[in-house]
């Protein structure tokens, strides 16, 4: 898991680019899978009110799990099939 210090949406794009070994600009826009600003707002709201929240979705062949405790887990679905 990766500790998050910036908006979740930006961290997700960075993580997927790193896993795939390609530049961030080559990653499909996150809004094709999830509304990035809404994701960021939900996470900030959950942290502010100390409630537990986890959101899981797929993007660019990766499964993304975002949790309120500021951790993001990104796994390549291709690696899971091997």
What tags apply to this protein structure?
single chain, 82 residues, alpha+beta, four-stranded antiparallel sheet, 3 helices, elongated, disordered N terminus
Please give a structural write-up.
This protein has 82 residues and is of the alpha+beta class. The protein is 38% helix and 24% strand. The protein has three helices and four strands, in the order E-H-H-E-E-E-H. A four-stranded antiparallel sheet has the order 1-4-3-2. The longest helix has 13 residues.
Strand fraction: 15-25%
Task: Give the biggest beta sheet.
Answer: 4 strands, antiparallel
Report the strand count. 4
Overall average residue pLDDT: 86
Q: Please write the string of helix (H) and strand (E) elements.
A: EHHEEEH
Q: Largest sheet, order of strands side by side?
A: 1-4-3-2
Structural class: alpha+beta
Q: Nutshell version of this structure?
A:
The chain is an alpha+beta fold and 82 residues long.
Question: What's the SSE blueprint?
Answer:
Elements (H helix, E strand, L loop, with lengths): L1 E2 L4 H13 L15 H13 L5 E6 L2 E6 L3 E6 H5 L1
